[in-house]
Amino acid sequence: MKKRHLLLLIGMSALLLINHNTQAAHISQVPVEGLEVDQPFFVETRSDKLTIQDCATCHNKPTGRSLPIESADRRAHWDIILEHADPSQMMCKTCHGQIVSKVPTMMSGDIVGFDHTYRLCGQCHFRELKDWSKGAHGKRLLGWSGPRIIRSCTGCHNPHSPRWAKRWPKTKTTIPSRNKGDAPYEE
Amino acid sequence: MKSKFLRWFRRSREVESKNCGGSCACAAAKLPEVDKPINRRSALKRLAFGFGAAATSAGCGEIVKHKFGEKAGLSWEEFFKKNYRVMSRSERKATIKRLERLADLRRGEKVNISDAEPLPGVLFGYAFNISKCQGYMDCVDACVKENNQDRESNIQYITMFEQKKGESGFHSANGRFFHEVPVEGNYYFGAQCYHCENPPCVDVCPVGATWKEQDGIVVIDYDWCIGCRYCEAACPYWARRFNWSTPEVPAAEYNPNQHYLGNRSRSKGVMEKCTFCVQRTRAGKQPACVEACPTGARVFGNLLDPNSEIRWILANKKVFRMKEDLGTEPKFWYYMD
After folding, report:
1. DSSP assigned state of B319
2. Exposure string (b/e) for B14-41, b if CB count within 10 Å is 16 or more?
3. ipTM of the complex as predicted
4. Looking at chain B from residue 221 to 250, which residues have their Cβ under 8 Å from any Cβ of chain A?
5. pLDDT score recorded for residue B287
C-alpha cells in the first residue's frame, strides 16, 4: 500500500470517528453494568428525565403528612395501576424493596439506579435480557454504526403496566391489492 | 460540412461569451473549453446553451428571463446526461450541482443532494421481529415523510400486513386493515423492498436504470428509468411502485437532505421503491422506519460485521424469508422471539 493511500485511510477513519462522536452527543448515555458482555454498549439514561424523583418533591416538610392532596396530578402513587403479571406474584415490594423505597431494588436488596433497570427486569425476564443485550429485543438509538446505544426497558415499557396499548394505526395503507377478490378497505 | 458548422459554432460561442457582460446565464454556466474534441452529445449541449443565451440576451438585466435561460440550459444538459453508474466522479458532481440549482429555480427549494458511495466492508441487512410488531404503522408514515413521496396519491413503500397466528405468507394476510391494533390472536409484519442478492427486477430492466450497489442496496436512476414497469411485474414481493404523478410535498414537510439514488425529487412516470434510506444509511444513520418504530421490531445493520446485532439474530433466532424457494436471496429476514 502506498503512503498516500495509508494517509487517506487514516484521514477517513478520523473523520468517521468525529462523525460518530457528534452523533453520540445528542443522547445522554451510560455504559451498561452488571452484565457479562463481549461488546461494551451503552444505555440511554432515564434518571435525568424523571420529573418527580425525590421524596422531597412532594413530601417537603420534615415531619408528618405534608403532601398537598388537592392537586390530583401530585398524587403520584395513587394513579399507578399495576397490571404486571399476577397480582399475587407482583406487588410494589417486588421491585421497590421490602421497605418500599423510591428507587428500584433487586430481590437481593441491592439498589439499582433508574438508568440500570434492565438488571431488575432481567431477574424474571432473563430471556428478554439476553435478547436485549445482543440486539434482538429493544431499540437502538442514533445510527446502525458507531457506539451501540440502546434504550433501557423502562424507556419503552411502563414498568407498572408493560403491555403495549391498543391504538389506531398512524396511517392507512393506500396500495391497492392486485389479487382479485380481496376485501375492500376496512372503514 | 460538419466540421465547418462546428468551427462556426465554436467561434460564435467565443464571440458570445466575450460580448455578454457579467451577470447573465451564460456567465454563470461555465462553458467547456473550446479546444476539446467535439462529439454529437457535446455539440447538442452547446446548441442548448446557444438557445439559453439567446433567450437571455434580449434582456440580460431582467431576472425572470435570466432564470428562464438558465433553467432551459440546465434542463437541456440534464436531458443529455449519462446513466449514474457510468458517470465519472466529476460528472456526478456536475449533475448534482445542476439538480440542486434546478430545484431552487423550479420550486424554490434549497436541497442538499449527496453522492455518497457504498461504504467499504458493508453489506446492509434487515431483520423484522414479527413477535414485536403491533401494526401501529408509524414506520409507513415516517417513510413517506423521509422519502418525499407524493402526498396526493400517497405512495407507500412499506405495506403492513395483519395475519392470523399460525399462518404465514402474503396470500392469506390482510394488507388493508384499518382498525385498532393489535388485535388478539393476530400478528403483524411489514413488507418492503427486500434488496435481494439476486434481484429479478434488475434482470428485466431493458435500459439498466436499476442495479444492485456494492453495499447491497438495489437502487434506481430516476432519470434513466423509462417507466416500462417490467421491474414492477418481475418483483415477486410487489415492492416497486410506479408514480403516476410528479411527487408533490408541502414545503413544510419537504426533506432537503437527499441522495441521488434516494429521496430526491423525481419526475412522474418512473419507478420508486424503498432504498433502505440510502441518504441516511450511508451516513451511518438508521433508515427512517427503524428510527420511527416504537416497538423496536426493526433491526438494521451490517451483515459483514460479525459483532452486529443482525448477525446475532441470524445466528440465534428462528428466522425466515419470504418466498425463499424463488432463489432471490432477500437481505430481509423475519424473526420471532
Report:
1. E
2. eebeeebeeebbbeebeeeeeeeebeee
3. 0.74
4. 238, 241
5. 95
